[in-house]
Design brief:
The protein has 371 residues and is α/β, with parallel strands linked by helices. It has helices spanning 8-24, 55-58, 90-98, 104-111, 161-173, 183-188, 208-221, 242-250, 275-297, 313-321, 355-360; strands at 72-75, 79-83, 121-125, 134-135, 138-140, 144-147, 149-150, 158-159, 177-178, 198-205, 225-229, 254-258, 303-305, 326-328, 347-348, 365-367. Bound molecules: zinc ion. Zinc ion is lined by residues 204-205, 259, 263, 307.
């Protein structure tokens, strides 16, 4: 059981309902292998009434060979009712049934378990359960944290490595789930559930201190993060180098995305600038930096961070035309399922934030009476 008062209890009720419904539904379990049995522990297993029951289940052997146990008791389009076998883990079962070991949390949350033990009866949701994160008492919001530089305390935009380590430790120890930013694409499209305490970590501009100070901590916890780079900055003394970016990308944790070419604000037309040349300038900022990153790093860039977080309807329209899937501002707040993907809110983490200020910025649920 997690410390989270929200979500988990709801999921649990949901799971109990599902198991009951699935156990009561008339679907045939997959054909078991000869001699298989599902009774390899003391946990009684509900049989789906009306289904074709394998003969071996009707007369269980007291000690069936574990290798012969299929584990699947029933399934339909939405759920698999599964009894954990020896050596099963959430990750291995998620890989087997959901095609992605990282989705083990969905099985854990739905069944209110931390890990699988042999004999555990679990319902594996095959389709996203409540992908929009809406409940009768509110809805899920996903905070996107925004960092800039890391180092000695000499300004608001600089977070010390020690403070960053304490913040990441807090996330790890309090059941926050740091997710890759790209996971938001399907969440915002209503196609994917996210963990109840999902958080996204980003760092802007492309300072080498991200590599030096933040990356080792992120690696320690296995936390993914997105680094927004403006390409005119690369080559400067305190900027990330191409090899540093390549190394971080190769870890599978860090993705490099675009923060424009020059870091000029995109919202205001320059004195004497025509509508047409303004659009051309914005388009250039949106695409040139991206193209350089894609070419030099052999990656696909689909997320944009507006310089200074400044966006307008015109800029959003250009970002859409440039095929960005997500774009972020620095308007503070979390992101519910109905957030506009090209106007996502972000929460700045400043150098003068203590741990209490940090905690206050981790709002993963917005209470509202939606009954
Ligand atoms: Zn910036």
């Amino acid at each position: 059981m997690t410390a989270s008062p929200d979500g988990i209890t709801r999921q649990w009720m949901c799971a109990a309902f599902c198991v009951a419904a699935l156990a009561g539904c008339a679907v045939s379990p997959p054909a078991p292998s000869p001699g298989s049995s599902s009774s390899d522990s003391s946990t009684p297993v509900p049989k789906p009434p009306g289904s074709t029951t394998p003969p071996s289940t009707a007369a269980p052997s007291p000690r069936p060979p574990p290798a012969a146990v299929e584990g699947v008791l029933a399934q339909n389009d939405h759920f698999v009712l599964y009894r954990a076998r020896r050596d099963d883990t959430l990750r291995s079962v998620a890989q087997e049934f959901l095609g992605d070991e990282k989705r083990g949390w969905e099985i854990a949350a739905f069944n209110d378990v931390k890990e699988l033990t042999p004999g555990n009866l679990v319902a594996i949701p095959l389709r996203p359960v409540n992908p929009v994160g809406v409940f009768t008492d509110g809805y899920q919001t996903v905070p996107i944290l925004a960092y800039h530089r890391f180092g000695d305390k000499n300004g608001k935009m600089v977070v010390t490595p020690e403070a960053f380590a304490v913040q990441m430790k807090y996330l790890a120890e309090n059941d926050y789930r740091v997710i890759p930013m790209a996971d938001l694409v399907e969440f915002l499209a209503g196609k994917r559930s996210l963990p109840q305490r999902a958080i996204v970590i980003t760092a802007d501009d492309g300072y080498a201190s991200v590599y030096r100070h933040a990356y080792p901590v992120l690696k320690h916890y296995g936390f993914p993060a997105t680094v927004f780079v403006y390409t005119d900055f690369i080559g400067a003394g305190d900027a990330l180098t191409w090899p540093q970016m390549q190394e971080m990308i190769a870890s599978g944790l860090i993705d490099i995305e675009s923060h424009s070419k020059s870091h000029e604000s995109l919202v205001a037309m320059l004195p004497g600038e025509s509508e047409r040349s303004y659009r051309a300038r914005v388009d250039k900022e949106l695409t040139v930096g991206r193209d350089v990153l894609q070419r030099k790093l052999d990656i696909h860039v689909s997320i944009f961070a507006y310089p200074y977080g400044d966006a307008s309807a015109a800029v959003v329209e250009r970002a859409q035309k440039a095929d960005y899937q997500l774009a972020v501002t620095v308007n503070p707040g979390g992101n519910p399922f109905f957030a506009q993907p090209l106007l996502l809110q972000r929460t700045m983490i400043f150098g003068d934030h203590d741990i209490e200020a940090f905690k206050a910025r981790l709002q993963t649920f917005h209470e509202a009476d939606l009954r």
